[in-house]
Amino acid sequence: MSSSSGRTVGEIVLDVRNISLRFGGVKALTDISFDVREHEVRSIIGPNGAGKSSMLNCINGVYTPQEGRITFRGQTFGHMNSRQVAEMGVARTFQNLALFKGMSVLDNIMSGRNLRMKSNLFQQAFRNPWWSRADREEIEHREVVERIIDFLEIQAYRKVPVGRLPYGLQKRVDLGRALAMEPQVLLLDEPMAGMNLEEKQDMSRFILDVNDEYGTTIVLIEHDMGVVMDISDRVVVLDYGRKIGDGTPAEVRSNPEVISAYLGTSH
Fold this sequence. Notes:
The protein is an alpha/beta fold.
């Protein structure tokens, strides 16, 4: 199946059905349903407070919705914790960077390999001939990380503490750490927030390259409508926790309810 962008997309990999989420008496999400197809770039947009990050938090196990279900590759769950979701192949970046600022770029991205490290910390800490399997694993993990560093064009910063890097490069490291998990589905929470135009162009290119070269399915929250319309296959629109639009960028752009939510008028 070909998407509006010309990319070949596959079967439904993630199916969100009738999700409702409340905090006390406050409704964050009300009866939200949408699906994500394999290999597509699926964007979630909406004004501030629309419920976009809450939706991602439901998908990756941070929040437990009171109603609804989420199906990932045929497996339906009401509640999974974040580690279980990650082990199923879903990785996440965060709107507010959660990087280890005093650690190097290399070590930050390496931390994304933790789920895949089978040998225990004792084995890694006390190297000797009996722990050759641990040595082999670490070499393999480092090779994956070095490829990601090359892919994201941050070779020159490998040993630099992340806290010393410009904001746009820190965002790139955050993407690299998520890629180190080798996810099937990558959830990106405002990856371009706070960036200048050039940084946004770079990040857009990397997102499309991740989708194309790694074959990773992308679910993206982003405020920049120009970026969303340029790189998305389909867009779901939330407003005050309700879904008001869903379709191709062209369909969403011409939806009167979406226009009203963003511009305050349907004209």
